[in-house]
Amino acid sequence: TPEQWKQIAAVMKRRFLFPFFDSAYQGFASGCLDRDAWAVRFFVSEGFELFCAQSFSKNFGLYNERVGNLSIVAKDADNVKRVLSQMEKIVRTTWSNPPSQGARIVATTLSTPELFAEWKDNVRTMANRVLQMRAELRSRLEALDTPGTWHHITEQIGMFSYTGLNIKQVQYLIKEKHIYLMASGRINMCGLTTKNLDYVAKSIYEAVTKI
């Protein structure tokens, strides 16, 4: 929450810590680009120097292009020059000249008002669908009286959710129900639909009660 971010900022300022944000879901977390960027902008307003890595793999559907950027906020022009010189060395030795197709798609979309508006609407639609799937899954698990608490499903954000299932329960879902998730219990919420929600919820119920 904003209040929690304010507390984190106060601690980091007191301890002279350097913030490095990973913005992988802007727009997908809440459906609002500005709301999802609130924490980064607040830290900037508090006078922090910081890095913010941003990925467009998810919110632009450009997984195979691996498009993103690194935003650097510095207090003065000299610091910017120092950081830029180091970044140029890293870029040169790491990839030098990456493919530009994905970056051009993002740049064109963000700089064209009509495309930008359409993209924001698409991102909002996808985010709302994920939020709905979270709410529906939690509702079904609670309706089944599935042991444990399931509020974390709706409290988490983004495309993925940690279910809280242990490794044996995960293996049961994979082998017996053909529901595929990480060994950590992390599941892709985008794989849920109105047609498979009941099946997934009942399968999780079985995994929790049987294993």
Label the overall shape: globular
Give a count of the beta strands, DSSP E runs of length 2 or more: 5
CA radius of gyration is 21 Å
Give the termini separation: 35 Å
| Helix-strand category | mainly alpha
What count of helical segments does DSSP give?
9
Largest sheet features: 3 strands, mixed
What percentage of amino acids are in beta strands? 5-15%
Textual characterization of the structure:
- The protein has two domains: 2-111, 3-Layer(aba) Sandwich (Aspartate Aminotransferase, domain 2); 127-210, Aspartate Aminotransferase, domain 1, CATH 3.90.1150.10.
- It is 54% helix and 10% strand.
- The chain has nine helices and five strands.
- It has a three-stranded mixed sheet, covered by helices on one side.
- The longest helix is centred in the middle third of the chain and has 31 residues, at 113-143.
- The protein starts with a helix and ends with a helix.
Key terms for this structure?
2 domains, 54% helix, single chain, two-stranded antiparallel ribbon, 211 residues, 10% strand, amino-acid biosynthesis, 5 strands, Aspartate Aminotransferase, domain 2, mainly alpha, 3-stranded mixed β-sheet, Aspartate Aminotransferase, domain 1
